[in-house]
Amino acid sequence: MRRLLPAMLLSALLASAANLEVVRSAISDSEGGPPNPPGASYHPGDSLYFTGRISGYTKDDKEQVRLAYTVQAFDPHGVALNEPYKNNVNAEVAPQDKEWLPKIETAISLPPLLFAGEYKIVVKAQDLIAKTSAELEVPVRVRGREDIHPADSLSVQAFRFLRHEDDTRPAERPAYVPGDHLWAKFDITGFRYGPGNRIDVSYVTSVLGPDGNTLWTQREPVGEQSESFYPRAFVPAEMSIELQPKIKPGAYTLVVQAKDAIGNQTSELREPFTIE
Question: How far apart are CA 125 and CA 252, in angstroms?
Fold first, then answer.
């Protein structure tokens, strides 16, 4: 019977460790703040303060607990938004502290440019004594802009004429008078990525007159060359031009020509406006 005792103890140990779980997860808007209700939504650029607890862990013969965990956010396609947060728990748990549950806490910063969708936080915990693990997925709803969507090829989207540079809503009518300052904003997506999620996107805008001839073109292309941990969802863009006081009334066209140097793609968008 004595030879069976270690095996029995090991069996009991593993049975206890099989219940390893990540429990009591919560997301707050600030460190130490109240938990947000389930189903709460977030915006690109927000900081999410995640907390949770680990239950069902095992102690060794010296009342020691040794755990490891990671926390990482993912987009709807399973692409990681950032590097995983990693931490360890090494503690002595006395018999009177049997209700104690190790705490998980970290801040997760959402990238500033994201498409709307159902994202998730994945928490993985390991019991280094019992060699068991547990995983928890916490859904995170991101409310991005509704006027831009993923594209299979280079695309100019969400074009809007503005009255002023800081306007948050497009002009009700794309109609201007001589001497006005014309503003326009749009977004470019559907580009390809190089090593390190590098992008090389540029654009040129032009104005066509009523006869279709080019009246004005940017002197140099404008764009972005950058790398990032998470693949950039889209590139915000804008242009402005002061309409000459002597410009004639009529129907005009603003042309956006976008280029993706890495993917060897081009895209063009034409938007009409009038001079009254």
Answer: 61
